[in-house]
Amino acid sequence: MANRELVVLGTASQVPTRTRNHNGYLLRWDGVGFLFDPGEGTQRQMTHAGVSAHDVDHVCITHFHGDHCLGLPGVLQRLSLDRVPRPVPVHFPAAGTDFFRRLHHASAFEEVAEVREQPVERAGPVCTGAFGTLEAVPLDHRIETFGYRLVEPDGRRMLPERLARVGVRGPDVGRLQRAGSLRVGDRTVTVEEVSVHRPGQRFAFVMDTRLCDGVFELADGADLLVIESTFLDRDARLADAYGHLTAAQAARVAAECGVRCLVLTHFSQRYPDPRLFHDEAAAVFDGQLVVADDLVRVPVPPRR
């Protein structure tokens, strides 16, 4: 199992199809699981994908249209049924707090797990941890909507040949990383002497929105961008009217923002052939391109 990967649970938009479930995406990031937009059927898709309730550490809701949240009651109840022992924060637009509470208690169940409401009121950091910082950025849809970005802090990559040259080995390598400097014999070795700058990785999640500044902000420098492409460009006017993107628009964002891997999803049922989305996006974006299918796994690209 990859340390950093996207598990796609569903790829449909408003109406599911025979081959596409409603939305659902689990990001595994160094042992921390972020579940995004669990639509109807997410519990069952988790079973098919080999994902358990214990794999969910955070739940992130972009907005409260049904295809992005109607699986939430089952997921939250499953946390209690499986007795997940740690608190699970749920991040969601603050304007939808009433919707969240209704979904949380949509039916009777024994609530054992601790679900923590984390309403998002404005752009900025949502939470931090060993994984980095989860940020929210407002988007332009028909109701209040936020996209999310996971940002790993920059670090240092240790160089074995330089470590050997100055005599730092074994547990002392970790001590040097933590302290920033280490006394070796009659001199002090700094971490800068034996390492190079390592840019942190970025993951971005963009759902229902028109093109807006927030889309580009979220996608900027992303190693992996998951983005809706509900429509094809021939229906761009319809996309704008309903607050959505086309495959060409999503690809343009990826190309302009230096995205390494572009994952298209949230497809309208009006288009039976997914190759159309690939061809439209590939004409604009020449990086790694994935037209998502249910239950696929997409690894976060390795560090540069």
TrEMBL record:
Belongs to the RNase Z family. The keyword Phosphoprotein does not apply. Its EC number is 3.1.26.11. Residues 21-244 form the Metallo-beta-lactamase domain. Homodimer. Binds 2 Zn(2+) ions. It catalyses: Endonucleolytic cleavage of RNA, removing extra 3' nucleotides from tRNA precursor, generating 3' termini of tRNAs. A 3'-hydroxy group is left at the tRNA terminus and a 5'-phosphoryl group is left at the trailer molecule. Zn(2+) 2 binds at D67, H68, D208, H266. Keywords: Endonuclease, Hydrolase, Metal-binding, Nuclease, tRNA processing, Zinc. Zinc phosphodiesterase, which displays some tRNA 3'-processing endonuclease activity. Probably involved in tRNA maturation, by removing a 3'-trailer from precursor tRNA. The keyword Isomerase does not apply. The active site is at D67 (proton acceptor). It holds the Pfam family Lactamase_B_2. CDD domains: RNaseZ_ZiPD-like_MBL-fold. GO terms for molecular function: 3'-tRNA processing endoribonuclease activity; zinc ion binding. Zn(2+) 1 binds at H63, H65, H141, D208. This is Ribonuclease Z. HAMAP family: RNase_Z_BN. Its cofactor is Zn(2+). NCBIfam families: PRK00055.2-3.
